């Protein structure tokens, strides 16, 4: 029997539920709700276009986008926005 601490935890349960209610998959909602800035507002993140291809690649790697090593910067941006 799994211990309760073996079950992955959601950092921002309210945001997770809201995303699932909007139609996001449970996996994507959990990934968003578990980011370091989950639920924070402020618009201080740089736009994808302002980031380097290497920065975009690392973000794509972090969230598991397949085929990222062969993508152009434009393709990485599209994949990140649509994942």
Automatic annotation (TrEMBL):
Record-level GO BP terms: DNA-templated transcription termination
Rho termination factor-like N-terminal domain: residues covered: 54-80
Protein name: Rho termination factor
Organismal lineage: Bacteria, Pseudomonadati, Bacteroidota, Flavobacteriia, Flavobacteriales
Stored Gene3D superfamilies: 1.10.720.10
SUPFAM superfamilies in the record: Rho N-terminal domain-like
Protein species of origin: Maribacter litoralis
């Amino acid at each position: 029997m799994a211990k309760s601490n073996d079950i992955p935890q959601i950092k921002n349960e309210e945001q997770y539920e809201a995303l699932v209610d909007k139609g996001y998959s449970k996996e994507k909602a959990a990934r968003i709700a578990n980011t370091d800035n989950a639920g924070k507002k402020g618009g201080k993140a740089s736009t994808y276009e302002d980031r380097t291809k290497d920065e975009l690649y690392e973000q794509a790697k972090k969230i598991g986008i397949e085929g990222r090593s062969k993508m152009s910067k434009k393709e990485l941006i599209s994949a990140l926005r649509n994942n």
